[in-house]
Amino acid sequence: MRLLNRSVGRLSRHRRRPLAGAAVLLVALLSTGGLYAAFSPASQAETEKDNAALVAEGKELFMINCSTCHGSNGEGITTQNGKLFGPSLIGVGAASVDFQVGTGRMPMAQPGAQVEVKEPSFNQDEIDAMAAYVASLGPGPAVPDKEQYDPESYGSEKEKEEAVALGGQIFLTNCTACHNFTGAGGAMPRGGEAPSILNTDPKHIYEAMLTGPQSMDTFSDGNISPEEKKAVISYVESMKEQPDYGGFNNGALGPVTEGIVAWVIGLGILVAFATWIAAHTTRTNQTKKGSAK
């Protein structure tokens, strides 16, 4: 009888252990679900509320400063002659706004072949608000995170050097035709100009590749991946540190300026020397004739 009771007791303990484990697991799941339900919706609602406030602030700034050219809903404005007064901003994305306004290109002082870079008219918070509003008009490229464009975010110096080498190949293939081998820029057709990128913020270089401002090509992530864009920026940043071993670089604009310098200065010196010789010879001859008389 005692043996039977002992066997029943062992069996009961074995049954309780799985039940206890299941109960602990159930309590853990309920606690996790309860905490998620308590905090997650609130934080999500808070984020949406903050974003809605940012969009509303951006719309107010947009209506005052941008709607004259781009329309009250960013749809763009066409003149009576059918010419585009201000392009549509639907689908250009927050990155385009951050680039154009952050570099001072917009608001534009006056229409022209080239939009000049100037001091920004808005602070970064205002730019973020307008970017949020334009982004709400239609899907488009977002403002990149710092890790996407910061060359200092590489894990090691070797990794950075490899990125510079890769970026140099991409830059020489896709960018030198307009921005020069040294990134100093150059003239473009129809009165345009490819600006120097040596003093451009890395974030704005990334955004320019992503959005293609003015006559620049658009390099989407399908054309040049985010990693390759970062490599290009690393190469551009490395060019800033390279010394100029050739003395005067003539604006680093290549053989055109070097040829002009050679012709103007070199031939100028030769012409001046030839003129001096001719004048000296004339005076000598006149002196000889006077002496003969």
From TrEMBL:
InterPro entries: bc1_cytC-su (IPR009152), Cyt_c-like_dom (IPR009056), Cyt_c-like_dom_sf (IPR036909), Cytochrome_c_Oxidase_Subunit (IPR050597). It is an enzyme of class 7 (translocase). It catalyses: a quinol + 2 Fe(III)-[cytochrome c](out) = a quinone + 2 Fe(II)-[cytochrome c](out) + 2 H(+)(out). It comes from the Bacteria. The chain crosses the membrane at residues 260-279. Keywords: Cell membrane, Electron transport, Heme, Iron, Membrane, Metal-binding, Repeat, Respiratory chain, Translocase, Transmembrane, Transmembrane helix, Transport. The cytochrome bc1 complex is composed of a cytochrome b (QcrB), the Rieske iron-sulfur protein (QcrA) and a diheme cytochrome c (QcrC) subunit. This is Cytochrome bc1 complex cytochrome c subunit. It comes from Nocardioides luteus.
